[in-house]
Amino acid sequence: MKKLTALILGLGLAAGATGLAQAQDNSKMVEDAIKARKAQMQLYAFNLGLLGDMAKGAVAYDASAAAAASNNLAMLASLDQSRLWPQGSDNMSVDNTRTLPDLWDNIDDAIAKGRATAEAASAMAAVAGTGLEALQGQMGALGGSCGACHKAYRAPAN
C-alpha cells in the first residue's frame, strides 16, 4: 500500500511539475509574442511615419524612399501573425500590452481588419513611388485601416 501511495504521490508531483513547466512555457510564449508584435507595430509606425510626413509636406517627397517604406508596410502586413496573438496576451491578463480582450471575442472582425490593412498597404505599395499625389491619395485608406483596428482593440495610452 505504501508503494502504491508513493507511486500515486510521485505521479501527482510529476503532473504538477509538468503543469508548472507548461504554465512557464505559456508565460514565455505570451511574453515573446507581445514583444514580437510590438516590434512589428514599431516597424509599421516607422514606415508609415515617413509616408505621412511626405504626404503632409513635413519632409520632401522622395519616390525611392516612399516606395521602400510602402513596400516594407506591405511586407509587414503579409507576415503570418497567428503566433503573435495567443490567448492571455491581452491587457487584462498581462501588464505590458494595450491589446483589449475584445480582440479574441471578435476574432473574425480583427482578422478582417488585418486583411484590410494588408490590402491598403499593398495599394500604397503600388503607387507610393509614382508621385506625391498618388501617395496622398492612399494615405486615408492606409491610416484608416490601421486606426480601425486600434480603435476597436487597443486601450488608450495612460
The DSSP helix count reads 5
> Roughly what is the average pLDDT, rounded to an integer?
89
Q: Within the CATH hierarchy, at the fold level, what is the topology? A: Four Helix Bundle (Hemerythrin (Met), subunit A)
Radius of gyration: 22 Å
| Biggest sheet features | none
State the share of residues found in helices, binned by percent: over 70%
CATH architecture: Up-down Bundle
Tell me the number of strands.
0
Amino-to-carboxy terminus distance: 60 Å
What's the CATH class label? Answer: Mainly Alpha
Shape: elongated
Name the CATH homologous superfamily: Cytochrome c/b562
H/E topology pattern: HHHHH
Strand content: under 5%
Low-confidence stretches: 17-23
How many domains?
1
Q: Look at the helices and sheets and give the structural class.
A: mainly alpha
What does this entry look like structurally?
The chain has helices at 2-56, 63-78, 102-105, 107-127, 132-153. The protein is mainly α and 158 residues long. It has a single domain (2-153), classed as Cytochrome c/b562 (Four Helix Bundle (Hemerythrin (Met), subunit A), Up-down Bundle). Helix 1 packs antiparallel against helix 2 and helix 1 (2-56) packs antiparallel against helix 5 (132-153). Mean pLDDT is 89; it is low at 17-23.
